[in-house]
TrEMBL record:
<comment type="similarity">
    <text>Belongs to the FKBP-type PPIase family.</text>
</comment>
<keyword id="KW-0967">Endosome</keyword>
<keyword id="KW-0413">Isomerase</keyword>
<comment type="subunit">
    <text>Interacts with WIP and actin. Interacts with TBC1D23.</text>
</comment>
<keyword id="KW-0966">Cell projection</keyword>
<dbReference type="GO" id="GO:0003755">
    <property type="term" value="F:peptidyl-prolyl cis-trans isomerase activity"/>
</dbReference>
<keyword id="KW-0697">Rotamase</keyword>
<feature type="domain" description="PPIase FKBP-type">
    <location>
        <begin position="64"/>
        <end position="156"/>
    </location>
</feature>
<dbReference type="GO" id="GO:0005769">
    <property type="term" value="C:early endosome"/>
</dbReference>
<keyword id="KW-0254">Endocytosis</keyword>
<dbReference type="InterPro" id="IPR046357">
    <property type="entry name" value="PPIase_dom_sf"/>
</dbReference>
<keyword id="KW-0007">Acetylation</keyword>
<feature type="region of interest" description="Disordered">
    <location>
        <begin position="159"/>
        <end position="189"/>
    </location>
</feature>
<keyword id="KW-0813">Transport</keyword>
<keyword id="KW-0963">Cytoplasm</keyword>
<dbReference type="GO" id="GO:0006897">
    <property type="term" value="P:endocytosis"/>
</dbReference>
<keyword id="KW-0597">Phosphoprotein</keyword>
Length: 189
């Protein structure tokens, strides 16, 4: 998925293809269907299948970072989307989570790594990475594969960000005052 409603992919001959869609919605719908097709054509996937719908901006989230997320979860039934079993999309409260804390299902921990603010991702999560053989009483049957569409609304990074050259950001960009006063108000770099 690329900006301006483009999607790019490789075929089985490793040729690169690009498709331009008439709208962002059409590009996202196509990406969702590609993800479902990938799942259905792969025998016994035992990890999370991720498909970016929108890339977002900024630095990707890593373990220890906190996210605020809007999401919808469906049961995967009959090779496609089944009924919605959980969503916070039209609610006032976003889900807050800290990646790596173990407070959400393993499939979310894995599937949300690298997401950026404003990013949307489609996740297909096998039972072992979701609720497993126990399921969730009244909501998720045992051994259910789940589909989530997640949108990261806020990201709080734990690590200090670094500049494009990999060096840490200069003191003028940090909230702490520089220990060395500069006569002209500009830092040496």
């Amino acid at each position: 998925v690329q900006p301006n409603n483009y999607s790019t992919f490789y075929d089985d001959q490793r040729q690169n293809w690009s498709i331009m869609f008439e709208s962002e919605k059409a590009a996202m719908d196509f990406s969702r269907q590609v993800c479902i097709a990938k799942w259905n054509s792969s025998p016994l996937l035992d990890s999370v299948l991720c498909q970016d719908l929108l890339l977002g901006e900024g630095q990707g989230a890593e373990g220890g970072d906190s996210l605020e997320v809007a999401y919808t979860g469906w049961l995967f039934q009959n090779n496609g989307l089944g009924q919605v079993f959980d969503s916070n999309v039209n609610k006032d409260k976003l889900l807050r989570l800290k990646l790596g804390s173990g407070k959400v299902i393993k499939g979310w921990e894995e599937g949300m790594m690298g997401m950026k603010k404003g990013g949307r991702r489609y996740l297909i999560i096998p039972p072992a990475w979701a609720y497993g053989a126990q399921g969730v009483a009244g909501r998720v049957p045992p051994d259910s594969t789940l589909v989530f569409e997640v949108e990261v609304r806020r990201v709080k990074l734990v690590k200090e960000s670094s500049g494009s050259d990999g060096q840490s950001v200069s003191s003028r960009d940090s909230p702490a005052p520089s220990p060395i006063p500069s006569s002209d108000g500009f830092s040496a770099d």
